[in-house]
Amino acid sequence: MASKCNLTVNGRTVRANIGETLVDAAMGAWIAVPHDCCSGQCETCRVRVVSGLVDARGTGEGDTVLACQAMLLGDAVIAYDEVPEATRRAGHVAAMRALSRDVVEVIVELRTPLEYLPGQYVSVTFAGFPARDYSPTLRWDGTRAAHELIFHIRMLPDGIVSSELGRDIRPGHRVEVRGPFGHAFFRRGDGVMVLVAGGTGWAPIWAVAHEAVRARPRRDIIVIVGARDLDGLYMRDSLDWLRDHGAREVIATSRQGGGGLVRTGRPTNYLPLLGPSDMVYVAGAPGLVDSVKQKALAAGAFCFADPFLPSEQRMSFMDRMARLLRAPGRGSVRDVGLFAPQMAGEDGAGRSAAARSVNRPAARRPLQETLFAARRLMRRE
Ligand SMILES: Cc1cc2nc3c(=O)[nH]c(=O)nc-3n(C[C@H](O)[C@H](O)[C@H](O)COP(=O)(O)OP(=O)(O)OC[C@H]3O[C@@H](n4cnc5c(N)ncnc54)[C@H](O)[C@@H]3O)c2cc1C
Ligand code: FES
């Protein structure tokens, strides 16, 4: 039985081993199929199988498979959209602003711009914390400077990273960004575009919606966004922007307390009847993303899904040490002004005392106390 075969990747044919994953086979000939997790979670590596013998190993959707999982069984031809190459960038937190009770806009300024497609995500490491994935977005009116990355981050009370926004993570904090990744990026087309977001899933969906309107103002766009309550609908100004710029339908839903322009229920209650020429994008909590994806696939529609899966990466020993040495003087989030109406970190004489306190150098823990804490941590490792 033959052990070798031909794999054609976006028109380039290479020799490969039968039984290799598509990512490994392409990599053997120095072709980097976009990938990130290599464990079938992130969807970055989804490719189209144009023809040939491929074992999808449970990842098949229409004519697509996950290239990090699917295995070559013989000659095959695969194709994918070219995306900017993943790279690393350094920067710092330039500003933070509360958008709702538990969602914060974090603006990161990079030393050099990072190219990405609307809808892609990046891996962000706030110095001293484990990396987390976030989806770059735009300001409410669709603006963004080239050196900026704008994130909407939901603060989880027990979140290793998000609970530290405005506390240990403040304007000036060093940041490293890796990416871009992801498969749910904006694509041109003629069909109806249905964009569905739950909570901070709005971040990539707003980036895609804005680009769709910019690229083709007369395209049929339906936007459905949901939150647990009215306060969670922090994106209302952008929804108005979309209404003013010709979106066919813009629906906001709240599980508690609808009324006026806000409907009661979940985004899935208001999905239009989908057809095979529709293009569906969905982002946010995995449950919502999965149910919209199932409906889209059942209708034969194209579906680009971005589930915000929890990260496996915990706090490393070095991260904990770095935190101990850096800034243990922690106030509450409200103390540091994150929830003041002004933009924390903005320059200008009009800043509130709370906003100014964000930029105060953090108090240092005496060395002896730090060493005691480090010894306690080592015993726990
Ligand atoms: C592709 C991708 C893009 C993402 N984009 C964004 C984004 O733009 N904005 C954003 O806020 N988040 C986004 N996330 C989620 C983000 O990466 C983190 O998982 C999240 O911010 C929690 O990190 P943490 O360190 O604060 O909490 P952790 O310490 O990781 O988790 C604390 C607790 O909360 C649970 N948990 C983790 N994530 C969630 C969640 N989303 N909802 C409910 N419970 C959760 C965990 O299981 C754990 O019990 C994205 C995730 C992925 C995979
Ligand atoms: S790299 Fe294949 S799913 Fe993440």
CATH topology of the domain at 193-307: Rossmann fold
Ions and ligands: flavin-adenine dinucleotide, FE2/S2 (inorganic) cluster
SS-derived structural category: alpha/beta
Helix-strand sequence: EEHEEEEEEEEEEHEHEEEHEHHH
The oligomeric state is single chain
Task: Give start-end ranges of low-pLDDT stretches.
Answer: 328-336, 340-381
Amino- and carboxy-terminal Cα gap: 50 Å
Kindly state the mean pLDDT as a whole number? 85
Specify the overall morphology: globular
Estimate the strand proportion: 25-35%
Tally of individual helices: 7
- Gyration radius (Cα, Å) is 23 Å
Q: How many E-type strands?
A: 17
Strand line-up of the largest beta sheet:
9-8-11-6-7-10
CATH superfamily of the domain at 193-307: Nucleotide-binding domain of ferredoxin-NADP reductase (FNR) module
Biggest β-sheet description = 6 strands, antiparallel
- Helix fraction, binned, reads 10-25%
CATH architecture label of the domain at 193-307? 3-Layer(aba) Sandwich
CATH class of the domain at 193-307: Alpha Beta
